[in-house]
From TrEMBL:
Pfam families, A to Z: zf-MYND (PF01753)
Name assigned to this protein: MYND-type domain-containing protein
Record-level Gene Ontology MF annotations: zinc ion binding
Superkingdom of the source species: Eukaryota
Keyword RNA-binding: no
Keywords, sorted A to Z: Metal-binding, Zinc, Zinc-finger
Classification via InterPro entries: Znf_MYND (IPR002893)
Family matches, as Gene3D superfamilies: 6.10.140.2220
Statement: the UniProt record of this protein carries the keyword Magnesium: no
Length: 553
C-alpha cells in the first residue's frame, strides 16, 4: 500500500517506465496528472487487496468462479487508471457479429462447451473440439501481437475480432477456474481432449513471440559481459520495452496457470497414473514459469493470480517449494499485487520447504531479498522473514549462496549478503558451534544500523571494475572538487574498453576503500583531511543534525 506507483509498473508486464514518460518527468502537468492517478489508484488498492484474499470456497460453482476472478478484474481496473494495453481491441473490433471462426467465436464456444453445455447428451463430441479451439485462440493472439509489435501482417488478422484483449483472458480464466473447482469435469475434459489437449496444456513451450526472445538474448549477452556498462543496460532495456508490448502469453497465463493448479490440487494418493503424470508436469511447468526472471516478466500478475491456491495451502506450497518454486514465492512477495498474501505464506513456511533448492534457485531468492531492501528500506533486513530466510539458507546450504549473492550484479544492490558472509566467517568463539538464528538476528540488526559511510565502503569493495567507473559519483570521497576524483574522471575518459590497466584500477579501488568517515556522524567519507576541510561548510548542518539524533539514542 505504501507504493501504489510501483504497483502500476509491475502489475502488467508492459508497464515498465516508457521513454515518453521519462521525457515528461520535467513537465508540471505530468506531475499533476500523476498525482491524480495516484489518488485514484489509492482508492482502488484496498479493493485489490480484498479481492486477492477471495478464495471462492463457498457458494455455487458460478459464484465461486466469480469470487476467484474478481482479483483479475480489480487488477485490470487498477491498471486501467494508467491506460492498460489489455483494454486494446483486436484488428477488426467494429464488426457487428462475431467473425465465423474468429477469436470471439472460439472463446465463446470454449466457454459454452465447458461451462454451459457440460452434462448434456453428446458432450464428449463437443469436448473433443477443445484442443482445436484452444490452439486457434493461441494462434490468433500470436497473429495479433506480431502485427502490433512488429507490424508483421498475416491473413488471419481478419479473425482478430475482439473488443478488449482482457475479455479473452478473463473468459479463459473462468473456464480454467471452472475445471479447477469441479474435478469430475476436469477428468471428462481431459478424457475427451486426449493426448492433444495434454500436450497443449502441459508440454508446449510458452509462446512468448520472437520479439521477447530477441530481448532475452540481448539481456543475457549484456549480463554475461563483465565489461558491460550502464549504456548497454539501457539499450537492452529499450529493446525489452518494445518487446513488452507482446502480451500473447500474458493473456493466456491465467488459463494455463489455473489448469496447472487444477492438476496439482486434484492429485491424490488414489489418483490414476494419468492424473499423477499431469500433476508432475504441472508442477514442473509452474516452477519453470514462475522462477525464470524473463518468463516471470512476460506472464506478470496473471500467473501470480492463478497461483494463489498454491500459496494458500502450506502442504501444497511446501511441495511446490521443494520442486524448485521457492524463489517464486519470494518474487511474488517482492513484486506482485499479492504481496501480503505471500507475506502470510512466508511467515508460515516450514524449514523443510528449503530442501532441494538448486544454486540457481538460491541465487534468485537472494536477488529477490535484495530487491525487497531496495524497494522498501534496509530495515526489512531486521525482520523475521528476512532473518529466517538467511538462516534457513545457511543451515541447508552453508555460506556459499550468501557469498555468491555478495558478489553483486548491479551497483544499486544492497550489500547485505556480502556483509553477512564476511561476518559469519569470523564469528567469535565458541568456534565449534555453528552460528545460530540469534547470531543472524544480531548481524542483520547491526547491518540495518550501520552508518551510511560504512555501507558505502562495503558496497565499493564489492563492485566490479566497470561498476566502480560507472559509480564514481555515488562512492568514495564526497568533497566537491576532490582532486583525486578529478584525476580519476580524466582516467575514465581515456579508458579503452577491453584494455585493463592494473595500476589505474588499484588507484580507483583505493580512492573508495580508503575514504575515512566523519567521526562525528559517520555519514560521509573523505579521501584526505584536506578534502574534509573543504567540505565542512556544506556538511556541517547535516553533521550537527545527525550528531544530535545519535546522542538521543
Ligand atoms: Zn577527496
Ligand atoms: Zn559528519
Amino acid at each position: 500500500m505504501s507504493q501504489p506507483l510501483s504497483i502500476f509498473f509491475t502489475i502488467m508486464p508492459s508497464m515498465s517506465m516508457p521513454a515518453e514518460l521519462l521525457a515528461s518527468l520535467k513537465d508540471d502537468n505530468f506531475w499533476r496528472s500523476l498525482e491524480a492517478i495516484t489518488k485514484k489508484a489509492e482508492k482502488v488498492m484496498p479493493q485489490v487487496t480484498v479481492a486477492s484474499h477471495k478464495r471462492g470456497d463457498s457458494g455455487t460453482l458460478d459464484q465461486r468462479i466469480e469470487d476467484r476472478s474478481e482479483f483479475a478484474r480489480m487488477g485490470v481496473k487498477l491498471a486501467t487508471i494508467t491506460g492498460s494495453p489489455l483494454l486494446d481491441p483486436g484488428c477488426v473490433p467494429n464488426r457487428q457479429l462475431p467473425v465465423p471462426n474468429g477469436m470471439t467465436h472460439c472463446v465463446n464456444l470454449v466457454n459454452k462447451i465447458v461451462r454451459k453445455d457440460y452434462g448434456r447428451p453428446g458432450q464428449r463430441v463437443e469436448l473433443a473440439k477443445l484442443p482445436y479451439l484452444l490452439k486457434r485462440i493461441r494462434h490468433l493472439l500470436r497473429v495479433f501481437y506480431d502485427f502490433k509489435v512488429g507490424q508483421r501482417v498475416h491473413p488471419d488478422m481478419v479473425f482478430c475480432d475482439w473488443e478488449k484483449t482482457f475479455d479473452v483472458g478473463l473468459t479463459l480464466h473462468q473456464v480454467g477456474l471452472c475445471l479447477q473447482l469441479d474435478p469430475p469435469r476436469l477428468r471428462a475434459v481431459m478424457e475427451a481432449g486426449g493426448r492433444e489437449l495434454e500436450v497443449f496444456l502441459l508440454d508446449d513451450d510458452l509462446d512468448v513471440g520472437d520479439f521477447r526472445k530477441t530481448a532475452m538474448i540481448v539481456e543475457q549477452r549484456v549480463a554475461a559481459d563483465v565489461e558491460s556498462e550502464d549504456s548497454d543496460r539501457v539499450a537492452a532495456g529499450e529493446i525489452e520495452q518494445a518487446a513488452g508490448k507482446d502480451l500473447a502469453a500474458h493473456v493466456m497465463a491465467w488459463f494455463y496457470g489455473d489448469m496447472s493448479v487444477a492438476f496439482i490440487l486434484n492429485e491424490r494418493a488414489e489418483s490414476t497414473p494419468d492424473e499423477k503424470r499431469w500433476a508432475q508436469k504441472a508442477v514442473k511447468r509452474l516452477v519453470q514459469w514462475s522462477t525464470s526472471a524473463t518468463l516471470r516478466g512476460t506472464l506478470g500478475d496473471s500467473l501470480t493470480d492463478a497461483m494463489r491456491p498454491i500459496y494458500w495451502s502450506t502442504p501444497v506450497l511446501t511441495k511446490f517449494c521443494q520442486a524448485g518454486g521457492l524463489a517464486a514465492l519470494f518474487g511474488d512477495w517482492v513484486n506482485s499485487s499479492c504481496r501480503d498474501l505471500c507475506e502470510e505464506a512466508l511467515k508460515e513456511l516450514p524449514d523443510v520447504a528449503w530442501r532441494n533448492q538448486t544454486s540457481a534457485s538460491l541465487a534468485a531468492i537472494t536477488r529477490e531479498l535484495q530487491a525487497k531492501l531496495n524497494q522498501e528500506s534496509v530495515e526489512i533486513a531486521d525482520t523475521p522473514i528476512f532473518i529466517d530466510a538467511c538462516f534457513s539458507m545457511y543451515t541447508h546450504y552453508g555460506l556459499a549462496p550468501l557469498q555468491k549473492a555478495g558478489r553483486r550484479e548491479s551497483p544499486q544492490d544492497p550489500v547485505v549478503f556480502y556483509y553477512l558472509a564476511h561476518h559469519l566467517k569470523r564469528l567469535p568463539p565458541p568456534a565449534n558451534t555453528a552460528p545460530q538464528r540469534a547470531d543472524f538476528a544480531h548481524l542483520l540488526a547491526d547491518y540495518t544500523a550501520m552508518p551510511r559511510s560504512m555501507q558505502k565502503r562495503y558496497g565499493w569493495a564489492n563492485l566490479t571494475v566497470s561498476g566502480r567507473w560507472d559509480c564514481l559519483d555515488s562512492y568514495g570521497c564526497e568533497a566537491e572538487g576532490c582532486p583525486e576524483k578529478a584525476t580519476l574522471e580524466q582516467l575514465r575518459a581515456r579508458r579503452v574498453r577491453g584494455v585493463r590497466e592494473p595500476a589505474v584500477e588499484r588507484r580507483l579501488e583505493e580512492w573508495g576503500s580508503k575514504a575515512m568517515a566523519c567521526k562525528a556522524c559517520g555519514r560521509v567519507a573523505y579521501c584526505s583531511a584536506a578534502c574534509q576541510r573543504v567540505h565542512w561548510p556544506t556538511h556541517k548542518p547535516e553533521c550537527l543534525k545527525h550528531r544530535n539524533a545519535k546522542r538521543r539514542l
